[in-house]
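Homework help board

Subject: predicted structure for assignment chain

Our instructor gave us this sequence and asked us to write out the predicted structure in C-alpha cell form, then describe one feature. I got the C-alpha cells but I'm not sure how to describe them. Can anyone check?
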Amino acid sequence: MPAEVKNIIFTHEEIFNTINSFEGPDIPRLGEGKILSVSSEPGETDHLCVNFLSYGRNIERQFLISYANFGAILLNYCIKLKIPMARKASKSSRMMGDHVSLELVLGTKNVPVNPAA
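My C-alpha cell output:
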C-alpha cells in the first residue's frame, strides 16, 4: 500500500494562537505580542526555539518547546478548528523553512528493495 503524507503548515500568527490556547505546565503564556521566528538548531532533534516579541515590555524573548509538546499543541489546535486528520496516521511536528508543520503519514513507508522477490 502506498503511503500518504499530509503537511499542515502553520503561520507565526497561528503558532502564537496555538501556544496561547493550550493549557499545560511546560507551555509558557505569551501575552500580547508576536512570534518573530521559529527554528531548530542544526543537529537539534528534541526542541524548537521560539523567538517572541512582547508588546507590553517591547522586549524579545526566546524559549524552547520540545517537539513532543509542540506536536500535542498542534494536534489540539487542529481538533479545535476541525481540520480533518486520519486517526490511524502517524503524526509528528517538523520544521519547514521558518514555519512549523504537523506531518501526518498514513500507510507504510517500507517499500521492498527488490519488488520482484
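Reply (TA_rk): Your C-alpha cells look well-formed. For the description, you could write something like this. The longest strand covers residues 47-54. That's the kind of observation they're looking for.
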